[in-house]
């Protein structure tokens, strides 16, 4: 086990404030939302945010996929504080202040690019049963600028301090050049660059950006829905999740010193991991359906647990175990929130 120090884990993504509520099917139908999906808000969704806060009992949680994962990794590690660094763009407003406060409470070293042209981004989490439909209004998150933030000397120094990097696929819609700069640095220095397919729409509509980054990806995460969408777009001609993982693992890679690892989750079904020609499956922790409060954040928590293992140089099966533990804790609570300390050995 290597010594864990601040800024070992670097994340960059869309910092969003989650506005979360249990809704009904009529609400989903009204805005033509699928029960379990992630989409970007369009004009037709503008009224959704107002209606959600007026009609339902909403909770506000600091969100954004990458930021959630970095927080969970920090929570799993506990000490020292600020092992996780996070970059993203917010507005100079009340929601932005909440995100700053929440990052500080989670002991994450967040360095936001703050601008006043757009308000802080929000994400409506519309919950029905154990499904969640996410509608993200990126706003400020979409304004991240490489030359205004990532390229600044004091910020780039933080990037260089890290040895594990994680960026959710969602950031591919915002700043491909920022992702590529970080990914190439990781590859050149033989550090670990991790990414997530994040959502079917990323695999479908941002596949060119995704495939520009793919050669640098050391660890690829995704769930079964995303894996299937990815396979379809890549003409893999299979719906078998294990086969898709094998084909994704075999895609071209720049840093040949490391074989790509592909990790696909399947909700309550076993998690699949492929490294080289070895396929492993890991059962998830059992949970009584009545204990599931909110599945929003389960995927982010899984990644956060896995990253906490990578940062501590733990074997891959231990990383999966930590990932399953984190996800199991998070789905028992509203939003991507957690108790004071993990109970993980």
From TrEMBL:
What residue ranges are annotated as transmembrane?
none
Identify the EC number(s).
2.7.1.20
Task: Name any cofactors this protein relies on.
Answer: Mg(2+)
The biological pathway it contributes to is: Purine metabolism; AMP biosynthesis via salvage pathway; AMP from adenosine: step 1/1
What are the alphabetically sorted keywords of the record?
ATP-binding, Kinase, Magnesium, Nucleotide-binding, Nucleus, Purine salvage, Transferase
UniProt cross-references to InterPro entries, sorted A to Z: Adenokinase, Carboh/pur_kinase_PfkB_CS, PfkB_dom, Ribokinase-like
Q: Where found in the cell? A: Nucleus
List the catalytic residues.
300 (proton acceptor)
| Pfam families associated with the record | PfkB
Question: Which terms does the record give in the GO molecular function aspect?
Answer: adenosine kinase activity; ATP binding
Question: What biological-process terms (Gene Ontology) are attached?
Answer: AMP salvage; purine nucleobase metabolic process; purine ribonucleoside salvage
Q: Where is the Carbohydrate kinase PfkB domain?
A: 28-339
CC cofactor note: Binds 3 Mg(2+) ions per subunit.
GO CC annotation: what is one? nucleus
Source organism, top-level taxon: Eukaryota
Q: Which reaction does it catalyse?
A: adenosine + ATP = AMP + ADP + H(+)
- What family is this protein classified in? Belongs to the carbohydrate kinase PfkB family.
User: Tell me, how does this one assemble?
Assistant: Monomer.
Instruction: Describe the function of this protein.
Output: ATP dependent phosphorylation of adenosine and other related nucleoside analogs to monophosphate derivatives.
* Entry protein name: Adenosine kinase
């Amino acid at each position: 086990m290597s010594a864990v120090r601040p800024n070992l884990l670097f994340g960059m993504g869309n910092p969003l404030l989650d506005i979360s509520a249990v809704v009904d099917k009529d609400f989903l139908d009204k805005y033509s939302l699928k029960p379990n999906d992630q989409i970007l808000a369009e004009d037709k969704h503008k009224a959704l945010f107002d209606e959600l806060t007026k009609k339902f009992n909403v909770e506000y949680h600091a969100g954004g996929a990458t930021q959630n994962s970095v927080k969970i990794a920090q929570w799993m590690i506990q000490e020292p504080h600020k092992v996780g660094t996070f970059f993203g763009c917010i507005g100079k407003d009340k929601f932005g202040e909440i995100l700053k406060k929440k990052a500080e409470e989670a002991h994450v070293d967040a360095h936001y690019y703050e601008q006043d042209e757009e308000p802080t981004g929000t994400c409506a989490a519309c919950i029905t049963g154990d499904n969640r439909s996410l509608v993200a209004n990126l706003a400020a998150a979409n304004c991240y600028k490489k030359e205004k933030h990532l390229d600044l000397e004091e910020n780039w120094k933080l990037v260089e301090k890290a040895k594990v990097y994680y960026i959710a696929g969602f950031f591919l819609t915002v700043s491909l050049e920022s992702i590529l700069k970080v990914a190439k640095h990781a590859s050149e220095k033989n550090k670990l660059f991790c990414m997530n397919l994040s959502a079917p729409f990323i695999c479908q509509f941002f596949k060119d950006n995704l495939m520009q980054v793919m050669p640098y990806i050391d660890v690829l995460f995704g769930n079964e829905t995303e894996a299937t969408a990815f396979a379809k777009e890549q003409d893999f001609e299979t719906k078998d999740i294990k086969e898709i993982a094998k084909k994704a693992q075999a895609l071209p890679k720049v840093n040949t010193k490391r074989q790509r690892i592909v990790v696909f989750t399947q909700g309550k079904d076993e998690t699949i991991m492929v490294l080289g020609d070895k396929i492993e499956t890991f059962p998830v922790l059992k949970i009584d359906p009545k204990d599931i409060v909110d599945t929003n954040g389960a995927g982010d928590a899984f990644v956060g647990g896995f990253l906490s293992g990578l940062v501590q140089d733990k074997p891959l099966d231990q990383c999966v175990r930590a990932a399953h533990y984190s996800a199991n804790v998070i789905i028992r609570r509203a939003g991507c929130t957690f108790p004071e300390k993990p109970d993980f050995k």
